[in-house]
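Let us practice reading a record.
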Amino acid sequence: MKITVKRYDPSKDNAPYEATYEVPHDDEYMTLLQALVYIHENEEPLA
């Protein structure tokens, strides 16, 4: 599944931008929180 997140860090970005991540899932249902935790732990920190 693809998740698109709007990113912005005022200390290094001129403007907000969208980043898209591919999140694998084995379950029939996955919560948004589970997807964000996956991105944070496996792609790049979200905070």
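A brief commentary: The beta strands are 2-7, 17-22.
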